[in-house]
């Protein structure tokens, strides 16, 4: 006679906690200079969907975090963001507007120096905002967000190239007729 021995005869089998695969720690730097090490915190990430507008998503995330911290999470537990894209979005928008303004002024000055004609330089400089307006309308119609990549693709050389050639030719013909 063969006696069969099962696992239940030699051990207690139960489901235990998941095996820990990593650890996320955070040091808290207090105002008084003291550093508190928190060796065990939970990390999470909020991802922005492709094509979604960060300007509208970020205030919604901030509102939800505030609601979780104030009403839902137990005392002593709170969500503390450590990377927030809000400043990045605002700095990016400011940088784009600043660079576009500087670009228009620089193009106008260079055109005036090379053409020697104020009207020609102003006409070419006026094409820049209109070109960017048309491009942003096309981006909006195609549901492409206006970010650094899409606006960077609208290089000033591409935007003003045709206008420079046309105005330069017109100025040349006007000077030829005056002689």
Question: What would you say this structure looks like, in words?
Answer:
The protein has helices spanning 7-10, 54-72, 86-115, 118-141, 148-153, 156-178, and strands spanning 26-29, 35-38. The longest helix is centred in the middle third of the chain and has 30 residues, at 86-115. By secondary structure, the protein is mainly α. The protein has six helices and two strands; from the N terminus they run αββααααα.
**Topology as a string of helices (H) and strands (E):** HEEHHHHH
> Taking strands numbered 1, 2, ... along the chain, how are they ordered across the largest sheet?
1-2
Helical content stands at: 55-70%
The percent range for strand residues is: under 5%
Shape: elongated
Oligomer: single chain
Question: Alpha-carbon distance between the termini?
Answer: 124 Å
Set out the fold topology.
Blueprint: H1 7-10, E1 26-29, E2 35-38, H2 54-72, H3 86-115, H4 118-141, H5 148-153, H6 156-178
Antiparallel strand pairs: 1-2
Helix pairs in contact: 3-4, 3-6, 4-6
Question: Which key terms come to mind for this protein?
Answer:
59% helix; 6 helices; two-stranded antiparallel sheet; mainly alpha; single chain; 179 residues
């Amino acid at each position: 006679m063969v006696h069969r021995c099962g696992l239940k005869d030699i051990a207690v089998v139960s489901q235990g906690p998941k095996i820990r695969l990593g650890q996320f720690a955070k040091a808290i730097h207090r105002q008084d200079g003291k550093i508190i090490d928190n060796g065990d915190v939970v990390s999470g990430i909020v991802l922005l969907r492709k094509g979604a507008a960060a300007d509208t998503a970020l205030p919604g995330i901030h509102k939800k975090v505030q609601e979780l911290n104030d009403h839902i999470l137990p005392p002593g537990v709170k969500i503390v963001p450590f990377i927030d894209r809000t400043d990045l979005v605002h700095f990016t928008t400011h940088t784009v507007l600043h660079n576009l303004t500087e670009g228009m002024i620089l193009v106008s000055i260079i055109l005036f120096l090379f053409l020697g004609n104020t009207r020609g330089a102003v006409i070419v400089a006026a094409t820049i905002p209109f070109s960017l307006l048309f491009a942003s309308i096309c981006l909006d119609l195609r549901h492409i967000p206006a970010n650094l990549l899409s606006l960077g693709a609208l290089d000033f050389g591409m935007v003003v190239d045709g206008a420079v050639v046309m105005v330069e030719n017109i100025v040349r013909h006007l000077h030829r007729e005056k002689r």
